[in-house]
Amino acid sequence: MEMIVSVGLFSAALFIIMVSLFSIVTAQKKAIAIQNAQDNLRFAFEAMTKEIRTGKEYHCGTTGILSQPQNCDFPNGSDSFTFRNINGQRVTYQIYQNQLVKSSNGTPPCVPDDTDITDCQRVTSPQVVIVDRIAFYVDGALGADDEQSIVTIVLEGKVIDPKGLANAEINLQTTVSKRALTDQP
């Protein structure tokens, strides 16, 4: 009888310990997924901000002529942003198939696929999925208002764990001001 009670208590204690261990492992996987998403999105944001900061001819959205500056103030942001970088290339950032992509020829829509990525490249990792939105807000792009051009980028993403155990949501925002006050050389 004592042996049965001892085995029962040991089994109950072992069950509690195993459940706790599995919870800790799942929490660690989620923390790693969040860290990976933050690192990837932070790198993407840093690359974008460096290029945007030295750019000119900011054009928010896909309407109008992309080489002409265009504002889109809050709350009417756009999911596409085009500008001329320091090398003279027309660059477009946007979301395609839940990925942040960059086109160096500036002609949206940027359409990457698995076989031919000639006109654009993925900026975020395939594990980072932009589920809700990306929004670009541009103010001061017209130049006639003597305001410093400012671009605010808001991104809501999610890291998808292939096993579905540790999905993590992430929300980031950054604001970039152009170095030059005008687009003049």
Task: Give an overview in words.
The protein is an alpha+beta fold and 185 residues long. It has one domain. It has 1 helix and 8 strands, in the order αββββββββ. It has one helix at residues 2-53; strands at 56-60, 80-84, 90-96, 99-103, 120-122, 128-139, 150-159, 168-177. The strands form 2 sheets. It has a 5-stranded antiparallel beta sheet with strand order 1-2-3-4-5, covered by helices on one side. The mean pLDDT is 80.
Structural domain tally: 1
Structural class per helix/strand content? alpha+beta
Rg to the nearest angstrom?
A: 23 Å
| Count of alpha/pi helices | 1
Based on CA inertia axes, which overall geometry fits? elongated
Provide the residue-averaged pLDDT. Answer: 80
Report helical residue fraction: 25-40%
Q: What is the terminal-to-terminal distance?
A: 92 Å
The helix/strand order is HEEEEEEEE
Which residues sit in consecutive blocks of at least 5 with pLDDT less than 50? none
Biggest sheet, strands in spatial order? 1-2-3-4-5
Number of E-type strands: 8
For the biggest sheet, the summary is: 5 strands, antiparallel
Fraction in beta strands: 25-35%
Q: How do you describe this structure in short?
A:
By secondary structure, the protein is of the alpha+beta class. Helix content is 28%, strand content 31%. The strands form 2 sheets. It has a 5-stranded antiparallel sheet, with helices on one face.
